[in-house]
Here is the input.
Amino acid sequence: MCPLNTKLARFAPPGLELKQEFQFFVIGTICAALYSLSFLIRFTDALSQLYWRNGLERTLIPDAVMPDFRELLGSSLAGFLVIGLCMIPFALYHYAYHRQGSKSIYLMRRLPDRWELHRRCLTLPALGAVICLILALLLLLLYFAIYLLATPDACLTPDQWQKLWRWNA
Here is the structure.
């Protein structure tokens, strides 16, 4: 048994095999990260449209405007939302797991710490959701930095960060 599994086992229902859940989370997170790369594809396409090409030479088109960051970002980070929301069924499965087989739900209810059942059912799914949120925020900051640094200043419209958070923009 790997050390990670033994440390996490105290936050999971007794006897639950964490390997499959961990694999689902890792594969899902990798797929979400790969899907987020669609931002870079849209960004490089929009960036190339700011220039005229003459052989190998590029010339910036006068009055060219880069699309807003929010528009280019689109749904690139939606995969992390999906994986984060998948943690809800995992939490429900952890509660249901206590009612299967040896019916450890009765043991959990007799423990002196009345929060032990909830801790074992909710900790790992909540941790997975928080990890998804952190990864999405880190990628958002990274992509925003790429957008600002790689786009010519003359082509940027003002208030990109504020536009990202406005609902009606």
About this structure: The CA atoms of residues 87 and 169 lie 31 Å apart.
